Amino acid sequence: MQNKSNKLPQERNHLSGVEINHKVNLIENGLIDIPMLQLLDEHGKETNPKATPDIAEGLANKILTSMEYTRLLDERMIGSQRQGRISFYLACKGEEAAIVGSAAALSDDDMIMSQYREQGALVFRGYKTEQFMNQMFSNQLDPNKGRQMPIHYGDKALNFMTISSPLGTQIPQASGYAYGQKMAGKEAITICYFGEGAASEGDFHAGLNMAAVLNCPAIFFCRNNGYAISTPTEEQFAGDGIASRGIGYGVRTIRVDGNDVLAVFAATKLAREIALKEACPVLIEAMTYRLAAHSTSDDPSGYRSKDEEAKWQQKDPIERFKKWLDGKKWLNEPALEAYKSNAREEILAALKKAEQVPVNPLEDIIEDVYDTPPWHLKKQLSELQQHVAKYPQHYPKTSGR
Q1: How many Å apart are CA 100 and CA 16, to the nearest integer?
Q2: What is the CATH number of domain 49-354?
Q3: What's the whole-model pTM score?
Q4: All structural domains of the chain with their residue ranges
Q5: What is the pLDDT of residues 363-398, one digit of tens each?
Q6: Which residue in 215, 243, 333, 377 has its CB near the most CB atoms, within 10 A?
Q7: Rounded-to-integer distance, Cα 189 and Cα 105, Å
Q8: Per 3-state DSSP, what percentage of the chain is helix, strand, and coil (rounded to 5)?
Q9: What is the DSSP letter of 335?
Q10: What is the per-residue pLDDT across 24-41, written as a single tens digit (0 to 9) for each?
């Protein structure tokens, strides 16, 4: 007998709300104007004091020191890569406001899914200098056991998902994780960082659509820094940046000046409130600029001019924020210089210590996937060990172990 309670849903009308006209209507690109939120101009002056977010002096200075530390870390590690001490590095220079400003607007319970240039978010949450170094030197104190490239951080205690190299994979993962947070009734959201280049990946479209349809409490934070490595935005897409795509997927969207800490903070705070209260995704497009090379494998002189870089140096997010702090009488220059001096010493000392810690044994490479490593992995490990023993001069860190 048929269960009468299993009623068929009412007829769905996918045309409801669609306006009808009686001539061909061609929608032009740029029909919808998407403004950029700016609360501090390039001179550190408030553009609209009534809209300035309520931010305490202590938090403001924590944001500043987190940005300063990030830049100091970047400078030292780029130098270390040039010296051959680490293999690879990605700097955040020029994008510190976008990363630290957004991280400051989150709850510690919120999950962060990063691309690879968000070390400032970890700094803000309290990641230690020795943790940065152990990961980048892939030594025995690295929680990843040396299986990741440098700058692929992760920390469960800080709700920072381990970074994965392939672009865009974190976007649908963020949708799924946020959906899980909602189903578990958690008062937390997921923020997912990526660059505008990663938005060209299919994972971006799948992830945003999934979040919109399933009402996932997630913030998709796009750092639009003008270049996907060497490819400028005008060669990546013809539409109005990444913000227009959020609108296309039915996602609440904000465009913000990514070099303006206060604007980023205010936008992210509002986005989090909406995502949590209404169980829905929000897309933030932060318009910024990468002052450094894409990575230590990149030479930006081949695709952009010194004049262009100089113009963006004038928009330095750290200097802009310092001017605002100074205007508030919250900037203590001697104390800041002392902090930076101590940070430099701490970073160098941790670097020297981490590079002396032995790397993980080769046997670790086949652990932690299967309960017991299968025969074919054991065979491959044996072949690897024979190869290292045959060419010890090419594997100085592992051949003598």
Answers
A1: 42
A2: 3.40.50.970
A3: 0.93
A4: 49-354, 362-394
A5: 999 999 899 999 999 999 999 999 999 999 999 888
A6: 243
A7: 12
A8: 45, 10, 45
A9: H
A10: 977 777 668 899 999 999
